Amino acid sequence: MKVIIIYMTRHGCAEKAAKMLKDRLGEGAETVNLKKSGPIQLENYDTVIIGGSIHVGQMQRKVKKFCEKNREILGRKNLGLYLCCMEEGEKAREQFDAAFDTDLRSHATAQGLFGGEFDFSRMNFLEKKVIKKVADITESVSKIDESKIVRFVESITGRAE
Ligand SMILES: Cc1cc2nc3c(=O)[nH]c(=O)nc-3n(C[C@H](O)[C@H](O)[C@H](O)COP(=O)(O)O)c2cc1C
Predict the structure, then answer these.
(1) Confidence (pTM)
(2) Which of 51, 86, 94, 154 could form a disulfide linkage to 116, CB 3.0–4.6 angstroms apart?
(3) Which is the closest atom of ligand 1 to the Cα of 14?
(4) Domains delineated in the chain
(5) pLDDT tens-place string over residues 89-136
């Protein structure tokens, strides 16, 4: 199975998730940072995984645009969608639903909300200030849920690990 994991990240969490997926998917899987990549030949892959992260309620606009532009071909692929964010439960689900449109979500074989991280070493002054105030924390924290990554891989490959 040829798999491409296309992602965008601001502070590295969605990238970490992409690498964790790649490690579990094994040979034939590759990762591409949409911010740094040239054109991507989706026709070369059976499975396409698209991931991003939420900042102030929104996923990276470039990921949304990529999905819109490639809507037709993505509709013919084994598709996985994931998000990294710190909200949980209903709120996280709402953010996911706003990030990926209904058609894409209903076509996807796997959908993942993998949790997130607050990495103060990668935040700018303003971000640190906002997070300290809103989340009431002063130190970096990681809440990536590896079990959700395992389940996502099981769904996209159709096999238990
Ligand atoms: C300035 C800022 C705003 C954020 N806003 C949200 C938000 O609205 N909802 C949410 O669930 N998480 C929010 N987060 C948490 C991020 O989704 C989390 O840090 C995620 O792991 C970031 O992924 P990345 O490292 O790939 O950019 C915010 C984080 C920062 C730094």
Answers:
(1) 0.97
(2) 86
(3) 26
(4) 3-117+144-157 (3.40.50.360)
(5) 999 999 999 999 999 999 999 999 999 999 999 999 999 999 999 999
